[in-house]
């Protein structure tokens, strides 16, 4: 009987020997359009379903909304009392935008000079492909797992929607002792925590009138909105006390920003402040009419030490003091800051195997954005994120990822399954 490390070494070697199939799989995923919006995942789910069936895995489809399909498959000892690990990835990508601003076809999936090119290369079709390949390889090799491994492919992450991970969890279609999401990360630093999210629309109302009489007539909603925005932006200035139990994670994340992603060093303060992005504004009818309404959309990210309820109370206090007529409505991402302990077995299995596969020091850090990880934590499932990426290209033009990073992550994925499920 082989030892655990011998099994890991064998599987890592399998990935090395078969890496062309891995990269071809990731390329094929990029070639299948899956922008969200509109969110039609039919074609890409059909392709993944057939790939898994070709490996001998059984799959189930779950339509959570029109043309939004979740795909779930499980292998291993389903009748035993071993642990259950979930590997999760989203099949949707953000829109490609203006094709003329790309240096290559955004759905080409080409390999050029060691880079895989196209929309979703980094976020997160390369990571998703790595999970699918790992899952299928374990099935094809008939590896005797002392627990269960589930693969969940979800269609609705990029809009912060409710039809992917939260829908599966709330309907008790998936459950487990730990989860890895193959969201983009740096090579040696999975994200084990993330800031909260507070997206909202603020609408300010005024009274119309002839523009030639402003400011003596009517009530200008746009100028009132200017005052309101100035108050909203004061969220950044709040002095927030970070709880002592997460301060080590914040400190380590700052070190990461200074020493690893050095271009992020100027942004260390975001880990302890509420960020405020006035992302969209519209109001008024024409220049000679006093506007009767104005609306903005705001994206705030919340550090540890402040909750969504705290932000709501702050906004109402400041806006009520202005004496304006307004309303606030929430949309999109919404969560408090959340994390998984670095000592949790799922975190250790990934971090330890990054070092095992690469020989490089690895540690978990804080994410300043949000993802589906928050939903797993809301259901008491420890989770972290680790995936191949060229971080500057995410959600931008000319998205790409290094082929060597895809292979490295896949080696970590397959070794981590063994460590996690064999460790009682």
From TrEMBL:
Keywords: Cobalt, Coiled coil, Hydrolase, Metal-binding, Zinc. The keyword rRNA processing does not apply. InterPro entries: ArgE/DapE, ArgE/DapE_CS, Bact_exopeptidase_dim_dom, Peptidase_M20, Peptidase_M20_dimer, Peptidase_M20A. It catalyses: N-succinyl-(2S,6S)-2,6-diaminopimelate + H2O = (2S,6S)-2,6-diaminopimelate + succinate. Its EC number is 3.5.1.18. Pfam families: M20_dimer, Peptidase_M20. Its cofactor is Co(2+); Zn(2+). One of its GO terms (biological process) is lysine biosynthetic process via diaminopimelate. GO terms for molecular function: metal ion binding; succinyl-diaminopimelate desuccinylase activity. Belongs to the peptidase M20A family. This is Probable succinyl-diaminopimelate desuccinylase.
């Amino acid at each position: 009987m082989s030892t655990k490390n011998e099994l890991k070494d064998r599987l890592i070697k399998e990935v090395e020997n078969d890496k062309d199939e891995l990269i071809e799989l990731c390329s094929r995923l990029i070639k299948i359009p899956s922008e969200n919006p509109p969110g039609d995942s039919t074609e890409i789910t059909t392709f993944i379903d057939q790939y898994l069936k070709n490996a001998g895995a059984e799959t189930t489809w779950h339509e959570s909304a029109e043309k939004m399909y979740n795909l779930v498959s499980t292998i291993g000892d389903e009748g035993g009392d071993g642990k259950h690990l979930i590997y999760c990835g989203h099949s949707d990508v953000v829109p490609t935008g203006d094709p003329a601003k790309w240096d290559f076809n955004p759905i080409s999936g080409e390999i050029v000079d060691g880079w895989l090119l196209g929309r979703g290369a980094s976020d997160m079709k390369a990571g998703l492909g790595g999970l699918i390949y790992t899952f299928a390889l374990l099935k094809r090799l008939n590896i005797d797992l002392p627990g269960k491994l589930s693969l969940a492919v979800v269609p609705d992450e990029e809009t912060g929607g409710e039809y992917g991970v939260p829908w599966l969890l709330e309907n008790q279609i998936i459950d487990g002792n730990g989860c890895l999401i193959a969201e983009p990360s740096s090579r040696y630093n999975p994200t084990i925590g993330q800031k909260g999210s507070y997206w909202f629309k603020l609408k300010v109302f005024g009274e119309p009138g002839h523009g030639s009489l402003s400011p003596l007539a009517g009530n200008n909603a746009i100028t009132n909105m200017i005052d309101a925005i100035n108050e909203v932006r004061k969220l950044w200035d709040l002095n927030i006390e970070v709880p002592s139990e997460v301060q080590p994670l914040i400190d380590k994340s700052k070190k990461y920003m200074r020493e690893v992603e050095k271009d992020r060093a100027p942004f260390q303060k975001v880990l302890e402040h509420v960020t405020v992005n006035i992302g969209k504004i519209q109001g008024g009818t024409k220049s000679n009419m006093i506007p009767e309404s104005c609306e903005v959309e705001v994206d705030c990210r919340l550090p540890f030490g402040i909750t969504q309820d705290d932000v709501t109370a702050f906004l109402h206090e400041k806006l009520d003091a202005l004496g304006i007529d307004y309303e606030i409505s929430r949309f999109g991402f919404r969560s408090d800051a959340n994390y998984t302990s670095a000592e949790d077995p799922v975190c250790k299995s990934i971090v330890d195997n990054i070092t095992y596969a690469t020989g490089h020091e690895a540690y978990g850090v804080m994410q300043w954005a949000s993802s589906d990880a928050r939903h797993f934590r809301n259901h008491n499932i420890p989770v972290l994120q680790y995936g191949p990426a060229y971080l500057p290209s995410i959600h931008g033009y000319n998205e790409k990822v290094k082929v060597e990073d895809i292979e490295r992550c896949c080696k970590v994925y397959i070794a981590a399954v063994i460590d996690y499920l064999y460790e009682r």
